[in-house]
Write a structure and sequence with these properties.
alpha/beta; Glycerol-3-phosphate (1)-acyltransferase; two-stranded parallel ribbon; transferase; transmembrane helix; membrane
Length: 285
Amino acid sequence: MTLNTVVWIIPLLLLAVVKLLLPLAGPRRILTRWLMYLAENWVAGNALLLRLVSNTRWDVNGLELLRRDDWYLLIVNHQSWVDIVALQTVFNRRVPLLKFFIKKQLVWFPLLGLGFWALDMPFMQRHSKSYLAKHPEKKGSDLEATRRACQKFRHTPTSVINFIEGTRFSEEKRERRGSPYRNLLAPRAGGMALALSSMGDMFSGIVDVTVVYPSGAPDFWGMVCGELDHVVVDIQLRDVDDWMIDGDYVNDREYRRNFHQWLGGVWSDKDERIDNLRANACADN
C-alpha cells in the first residue's frame, strides 16, 4: 500500500505544483479533473490490495441510486479510520471523488497538505468555546469559511462527505456526552447546514450512509493484516428540500431549530437501522 501511494502521489504532487502556479481558472479546472483521476487510481489500487490479502464480505445496498456525474452530500456515522477506506472502496468511480472536510492546519502538512489543496478538499477552521469567549467577533467565521470552501465545487461534480458526529464513536464518548442514541453520538449540524446553504441547489441529493462492522469496528492495522471480515454499507438517498437551502444557520434561530429537529430524526432512523443491520448480519452468519 505504501508503494501504491508513492506511485500515484508523485505525479499528483507534480500536477499540484503546476496548479498552484497557474493563474487561470479554466486550466486549473482541467488539472483538477486530472488530479481526481490520479486519486481514483490510488483508491482502486488500495482496494485491489485489500481484496488480495483478505476475504472481506461486502454487503452494499443502494449504490444503484447514485451517478458519477452528479453532486452529492454524504452524511456518515463514524467508528474507525477504516471507515474512510471502506467508503472509498465502495464509492470509487460510482460517484465523484469523495471530498472530506479537513482541519485548516493540515494545509501546512508537508506534501500531503499540497495534495489536499490540489484535490479541492474543503478546509475548515473550528474555534473553541474559550477562544470565542475572548473573541466574540469571530463567532460564525468558521462556518463562513465552510461556505467559501464549498463554492469551488460548483464547477466540477463533487461528493462532499461529512462525519457529522465530529469524532469516532465509542461507548465512553456516548456516555460522557449524554448521547440519546444507542449506536451514535449526537450529530453536529453546522457544517452540513452551511454546505447545503452554499451549494444545496446543486446537490442531487443527500446520501445517508450507514456503515456497520458486524464483528466490531476494526483498527487500521487489523485491516491491512487481513482481519476485515465483514462490512455492511447501507445507502439511502434523501431529498434536498428548499427550506434547507434558503435558511441562515448562523443568524436564524428558527432555521437552526428546524434543522436540528430534522437531523435528529435522520439520526434516530440511522440508530434503529444500525440495530437492524447488525441483527440481519448475525442471522446470515
